[in-house]
Amino acid sequence: MTPSPAYSSDSPVRASEDARADAAGEGARPATGVSEQGRDGAAARSSRRGALRVAGMLAAGTIGAAAGAAATHWHDGRRSPTFRVAALPADGSGRRAVSTTFRVAPGTGSVALTFDDGPDPRWTPVVLDMLSRLGVKATFFVLGEAARAHPDLIAREAAEGHEVAIHNWVHTDVYGASPDELGRDIDRTIEAITSAGAPKPTLWRPPYGRVDAVALAAAADRGLDLVLWSLHTPGAAAAKEVGQAAQDGAIILCHDGRSQPYAELMEEMGRSVERIQSRGLRVVSAGELLAGGGGS
User: What digits encode the pLDDT tens for the residues 190-234?
Assistant: First the structure.
């Protein structure tokens, strides 16, 4: 490699090169400033990208959790009711019996009005006000977690003469719960109901109306009867139709919690109760209907 030529500090060549270097330095300073701004911008963009990645991961986690829950419900919802059996009774009696009713035989002159998924601080008071105005009693199949969160609403239901019964601790399919888990959920719901001042419940309506041997055994062990439904009011149109469709012995399913209630539906339900009454039928709780008294 050829070495670079050496110049003295006062040589014309060195002076010329120094001058060029100074000029180049003068001209390079703005470029250096731009580069620093670019680095600042790049850092900001990198920070934004990092934040977006974190947000994306959080969103993906939320979506993944929801998808996982949906997949679990999809899987549980397609299991056969015969995929598992109940254990033998702990008391050794060998017999378990549970009454399961979705309507009763005509002759009582009554229909039962029932509400699932409460108590809800927005809609349960609306329902209670409507029932008070119409002078009827109903059964509330409550979620234990909601009952624990809103004991005042459970207390009001009981104080106004309505029946408080069991739905579940949370709105999950009983097929996805082990016998021990299911038993604990029922017991916790009973505790939430009674600690709020309502009588110990005697009726249970499992979410989605789905039961199997394990659920029936859990009900038998606790002296619970199951109540399903013969008419459903998922929307305002159905609520309007039930005023004429309800016949002697029918059990009507409505909702006062979770995502189903809305103002128009509640208004139509009130009008339908009035139509049922105008047809000479009494509107009572499920317990009254099962007892055959039909209320007063």
Answer: 999 999 999 999 999 999 999 999 999 999 999 999 999 999 999
Question: Can you tell me the distance from the alpha carbon of 207 to that of 102, in angstroms, rounded to the nearest whole number?
Answer: 14
How far apart CA 118 and CA 142 sit, in angstroms, is 5
H or E stretch covering 110: strand 110-116
Structure tokens that stand for 45 in this block: 């963009």
Catalytic residues: 116, 255
The DSSP H or E segment spanning 184 is helix 179-195
Residues 137/161, Cβ–Cβ less than 8 Å? yes
Whether 228 and 254 have beta carbons less than 8 Å apart is answered as no
Residue with tokens 């409460």: 118
Stated pTM of the model: 0.72
Whole-angstrom distance, CA of residue 222 vs CA of residue 186: 9
Cα distance between the two ends of the chain? 115
Q: Which of 279, 277, 278, 235 is nearest to 113 (CA)?
A: 277
Residues linked to residue 283 through DSSP beta bridges, in sequence order: 111
Q: Is residue 157 within 8 Å of residue 131, measured between CB atoms?
A: no
188: tokens are 């916790």
